[in-house]
Specification:
alpha+beta; seven-stranded antiparallel sheet; five-stranded antiparallel sheet; hydrolase; protease; Peptidase_C69
């Protein structure tokens, strides 16, 4: 979710404040193992606390209104009329298995503000989830809201999925003196996957295929009026006109899509230069010519675990691998503290921006399954903190209460809570950053055990809930799923607290405690066995000497 002037400039400007940046992948029925649709979302921000939102279904008397607050800041934006009935929503999925995610691409800076506008991108998501049942309905609700009440945000890409279809909607406001937004939405073809990560990705689109494409009537004419496009309608590229790709858009944003695609499909190496920010342009249109496709066909159908793993990446095994350069330190830490760009001798350099990043508030993998009743069919696999080290817990869309560990108000960024999953998971990751190569193995092992248990249990939970649904009614099924979700999420958080205690004991003070048969070793007198004290790798020592010369040389030592 990045506000882009030129992307690099903006990362420098807001790096200390928000530096929002999110990643979405979209999976169609034909591309998944079980025929479910899936979308992913990582809500990344240095000021976002990881919690699970919940709104119960409600009926509203005529004349009821609702206040709109900007999701990023909490700023009051205005009031809109409420609809007679709103659906229940858990996180970013409603009771009809409709799921929505987003990434902000910013786009043309002259379109970034609209006086009097009420609907920001976050409000569009959460208001729409309460009002729409399907992806197509959601597109209409979102675009109607923006046109009626004004669009408060800059350019935005939305992932929208129901049990049958997956769509990408991209919109950008019309700027000052105008109202609403220009937009285009395309359906991801069945059997394919797509993705977006803070850069508009829809280029040309079919103008006469309402089954697979929808767009605002002025999406092309508005660009012509502004002098941004003068070609034939069929040549119009939404992204190239409203959000041209530059180095930052490719290196910090599109590279994440490339990395996710690279995990599930061969042949992505042909786009390595593009991911590195080497943009090739048509000399006439100035449109980028070496872009990745909007969607690809994965080499095999994807499971929900495969999609979770798409969200876990630091460019491992590629030219951008964050664990291999000197910046990773002696323990291969694939994270770089912000800002994203820096200078040496007046030359600008950058850090990589990977899918997995330290400042994630929450993330999810949504799973919509058409063969089950809605309350059971929709699962929001929800996690907090860094995607690489989180655990995704199954929050069925029919639950009626949020687990204690994910509740809104259970701590915040300035108040620690012993029962908050966000704080417990951050405790583990921030400790693991100190000796990452060793500790991350324990984290990933426990993660695999917990998520494996959740995934293996899903068929039985589905069956039990469906039995209750058919024999005792939907309310009983929802109660069962609510209790299951709460128990598992809270137990997961308790397990993670135990993981921290184990890591603290094993790795305190740079030592590594010895273990035997699953227990920390003691000597024959009952005292702790002398710990290992692993040094640093040779290349790290060599780097120190290259930097410091004879400063640390032992007088009279070896080599004299």
């Amino acid at each position: 979710m990045i506000r882009r002037i030129s992307l690099i400039a903006l990362f420098v400007v807001v790096g200390a404040a928000y530096s929002w940046a999110c990643t979405n992948f979209l999976v169609t029925k034909g591309a998944s193992v079980d025929g479910s649709t899936m979308i992913t979302y990582a809500a990344d921000s240095h000021t976002l606390y990881g919690e699970l939102y919940y709104q119960p279904a409600a009926d509203h008397p005529e004349g009821t209104t609702r206040d709109i607050y900007e999701w990023d800041t909490g700023k009051f934006l205005g009031i809109i009329p409420e609809v007679p009935h709103t659906y229940s929503v858990i996180g970013n999925m409603n009771e009809h298995q409709l799921a929505i995610g987003e990434t902000t691409f910013g786009g043309r800076s002259e379109l970034s503000s609209q006086s009097g506008a009420i609907m920001d991108y976050g409000s569009l998501i959460y208001v729409t989830l309460q009002r729409a049942k399907t992806a197509r309905e959601a597109i209409k609700v979102m675009t109607d809201l923006a046109d009626t009440y004004g669009y408060y945000s800059s350019g935005e890409s939305f992932s929208i999925a129901d049990p049958e279809e997956v769509w990408i909607l991209e919109m950008i406001g019309k700027g000052e003196g105008e109202k609403g937004a220009v937009w285009v939405a395309v359906r991801v073809p069945d059997g394919y996957i797509s993705g977006h990560a803070n850069q508009a990705r829809i280029t040309t689109f079919p103008l006469n295929d309402t089954q697979n494409c929808m767009y605002s009537k002025d999406v092309i004419s508005f660009a012509r009026e502004k002098g941004w496009f003068d070609g034939k309608n069929k040549e119009f590229s939404f992204s190239d006109v409203y959000a041209p790709v530059d180095f930052g858009a490719a290196r910090f944003c599109e590279a994440r899509v490339w990395a996710g695609f690279n995990k599930v499909a061969e042949g992505m190496d042909q786009y390595t230069n593009y991911a590195k920010g080497l943009i090739e342009q048509d000399p006439n249109t100035k449109f980028a010519t070496n872009r990745m496709p909007l969607w690809i066909k994965p080499d095999k159908k994807l499971s929900v675990k495969d999609v979770m793993e798409m969200m876990r990446d630091h460019y491992e095994g590629t030219e951008l691998d964050m664990s291999k350069d000197l910046g990773a330190g002696p323990h291969g830490l694939p994270y770089r503290w912000r800002g994203l760009t820096w200078e040496v001798d007046s030359v600008e350099y950058c850090n990589e921006r990977a899918i997995s990043t330290q400042q994630t508030g929450f993330s999810f993998v949504s799973q919509s399954r058409s063969w089950l009743p809605d309350a059971i069919g929709g699962i929001l696999w929800f996690g907090v903190d860094d995607t690489y080290s989180t655990c995704y817990a199954p929050m069925y869309c029919g639950i009626t209460e949020v687990p204690e560990c994910f509740k809104v108000g259970n701590g915040d960024l300035l108040n620690y809570s012993e029962t908050s999953a966000f704080w417990i998971f951050n405790t583990v990751t921030n400790f693991a950053y100190l000796r990452y190569d060793a500790m991350i193995e324990h984290v990933r092992k426990r993660q695999a055990e917990i998520e494996g248990k959740f995934i293996a249990s899903t068929p039985a939970i589905d069956q039990a809930a469906n039995y209750l649904f058919e024999n005792e009614g939907e309310a009983k099924a929802r109660q069962f799923l609510t209790e299951y979700a709460s128990n598992e999420a809270n137990n997961m958080t308790a397990d993670w607290k135990e993981l921290f205690q184990y890591l603290l004991i094993k790795y305190i003070d740079g030592n590594v405690k010895k273990e035997k048969d699953g227990q920390f070793e003691r000597n024959e007198y009952g005292m702790p066995a002398s710990p290992d004290q692993p040094g640093y790798p040779d290349w790290w020592y060599e780097a120190i000497i290259k930097s410091t010369g004879d400063h640390f040389k032992v007088i009279g030592g070896a080599g004299h």
